[in-house]
Design goal:
Elements (H helix, E strand, L loop, with lengths): L6 H29 L4 H32 L3 E5 L2 E4 H40 L1
Antiparallel strand pairs: 1-2
Length: 126
């Protein structure tokens, strides 16, 4: 119980609260813009679906996070004597995703315009 009132816990709570408020406001603005395109009759139904599904998704994410905290260190399998747990696999997957995404964006910036220009030149030559 003492841990809940420690400086670390209160700073974590404050950080999570600010993030939740900022992301929630951003989400509300985005959804309002999208729902503004709907008919007036469908807007009320769409808001209910959005709010209910948002709550369900957040609860499921919190439940999965609490499960991961409890069971994340359990070894799933080992290869050549090196054990792999769920946390390690999530970090590995996230790192690989970031690596692939970064390389593809750099490739698009460096080679994307050239590839687009050569296709345009071929079409113009026809």
């Amino acid at each position: 119980m003492d841990y809940l009132l420690s400086a670390d816990a209160l700073i974590s709570l404050l950080t999570l609260t600010v993030l939740e408020i900022v992301l929630g406001v951003d989400n509300v603005i985005f959804v309002s813009i999208i729902m503004g395109r709907l008919d007036a009759k469908l807007q009320k139904k769409a808001r209910r679906i959005w709010m209910i599904s948002g709550m369900i998704v957040r609860v499921l994410l919190l439940l999965s996070l609490s499960w991961l905290v409890k069971n994340g260190n359990a070894e799933l399998f080992s290869i050549f004597g090196k054990g792999f747990n769920l946390r390690g696999l999530i970090m590995l997957g996230g790192g690989l995703f970031l690596l692939v995404k970064t390389v593809s964006e750099i490739h698009q910036k460096l080679e994307g315009d050239q590839h687009h220009q050569t296709n345009s030149n071929k079409k113009a030559a026809r």
